[in-house]
Amino acid sequence: MVVVAQKEPHVSRMAFKEIAQPQTLAERCELAQRMKDELELNMQILIDPLDDRSRELFSDLPSPAFIIDPSGKVIAKFPWADPQQIAQAVRTHRADLTPAAVGTQPSKTR
Fold first, then answer.
1. Tens of pLDDT along 88-106?
2. By the 8 A CB rule, do 36 and 22 touch?
3. Could you say which DSSP state residue 72 is in?
4. Of 37, 22, 35, which Cα lies nearest the Cα of 81?
5. pLDDT tens, 5-23?
């Protein structure tokens, strides 16, 4: 599982009152690291460039979630990253999420 750090849709509001919108890629990386540390996330965080091109590819929703199989096919998508819905979808699609299911090995990234 990975998280994609994009433009923060809630800056200066709600629980994000103290968060400013990053203006540079370095600031976005710092905010992503802060999120990883504070939420104790044990997963890779991919940083979207400041043009937020992943929003064009996936969705312009504030917190969408996608389950993508090892071949790159989207097998489930959600308008909101609800952990219970995601867990259920992973259980449902578990066989599709193994590299053997698509005959490929996932690429290794740092």
1. 888 888 777 776 655 544 4
2. no
3. S
4. 35
5. 777 776 766 666 788 888 9
